[in-house]
Design goal:
73 residues; 68% helix; 0% strand
């Protein structure tokens, strides 16, 4: 069951601008690079999975907000 709620446009605008914080984005890139080189430890593999999941979820939320605003990602 999907629910619909009204939200102020500014809230949707703010959601459309969500991004990983810069340090987390840098760490994600570092881990992806190390993964490509086959150099990740077990902990780094877990960190990569968590950051990649968070990044993907943020992207989906942003895409929905942009859709509501009638914009393309």
């Amino acid at each position: 069951m999907a629910a619909t709620i009204d939200a102020p446009q500014q809230w949707v605008e703010n959601i459309a601008m969500l991004r990983l914080p810069e340090p987390a984005d840098r760490r994600l890139q570092q881990l992806m690079d190390r993964n490509n080189e086959g150099l990740l430890s077990e902990q780094e593999t877990a960190d990569l999975a968590a950051l990649a999941e968070l990044s993907e979820q943020l992207s989906l939320v942003r895409a929905e907000a942009l859709h509501l605003l009638g914009r393309k990602p």
